[in-house]
UniProtKB/TrEMBL annotation:
InterPro entries: Zn_peptidase_2 (IPR007395). The chain crosses the membrane at residues 6-25, 144-161, 197-218. Pfam families: Zn_peptidase_2 (PF04298). Keywords: Membrane, Transmembrane, Transmembrane helix. This is Neutral zinc metallopeptidase. It comes from the Bacteria. The lineage of its organism: Bacteria, Pseudomonadati, Planctomycetota, Planctomycetia, Pirellulales.
Length: 225
């Protein structure tokens, strides 16, 4: 079994940040779920989409908690039950964030287009890249290490390009929430608390991917020397 204590120096710090980010987003979501809003998540998302002329975009309920997402293939927003029917700051913030992705899709927002194109390579890299690199390191197979590095680089690229996509969707949500009268401007900090906490999870995921890639590169280049 391959064991390298240096791996912990690269991977543990971003892993701890990811754990903190997950705790933070759940804490903020629970807290802001107690703050009432004028509309449900469904109504807020529908108002935002309709204002952008996206009346053809459907909104459906999906199982789970914090499972909300926009499906660009089906052109559908899928909102968890608590967000779909909840009339809280958390619900309208999350719903409008996902509506922001639909707006990005409609206008062919470049980072979203690139991110969607990178999905197949990122899935392969996530499933095989790390494993292949570790096997290469364990058995001293340098070519195999580099195959793993290249595959995992797709994961890191996906995470990096995902950051502007998510930040932009949140900014669109914040603007439209006020512009459409879904919340008062003085209530924006409540919604921002949830969206900013969610943003930290994207930052943590990106840092995890980059530091893992950096570790593989460090080992691959070190072994070559």
């Amino acid at each position: 079994m391959y064991f390298d204590p240096i791996w912990f120096l690269f991977v543990i710090p971003p892993m701890l940040l990811a754990m903190f980010a997950q705790w933070r987003v759940k804490s903020a979501y629970h807290e802001m779920s107690q703050m009432p809003a004028r509309m449900t998540g469904f109504q807020a998302a529908r108002a935002m989409l309709d204002s952008a002329g996206l009346t053809q975009i459907g909104i459906e309920q999906t199982p789970g908690e914090l499972s909300d997402h926009y499906d660009p293939r089906a052109k559908v927003l899928r909102l968890s039950s608590n967000v779909y029917s909840g009339n809280s700051m958390a619900a309208v913030g999350i719903a409008c964030h996902e509506a922001g992705h639909a707006m990005q899709d409609a206008m062919h927002y470049a980072p979203l287009v690139i991110r969607n194109a990178a999905v197949p390579a990122a899935k392969i890299g996530s499933g095989l890249g790390g494993t292949v690199a570790m096997v290469g390191l364990a058995f001293g197979l340098q070519p195999l290490v580099w195959v793993g590095v290249i595959a995992f680089a797709a994961v890191a690229f996906f995470q990096v390009i995902n950051l502007p996509v998510e930040f932009d969707a949140s900014n669109r949500a914040k603007h439209q929430l006020v512009a459409q009268g879904i919340i008062a401007e003085r209530d924006l900090p409540f919604v921002s608390k949830v969206l900013n906490a969610a943003a930290l999870t994207y930052v943590a995921a990106t840092l995890q991917a980059l530091m893992t890639l950096a570790y593989f590169l460090f080992r691959a280049l070190g072994d070559r020397r």
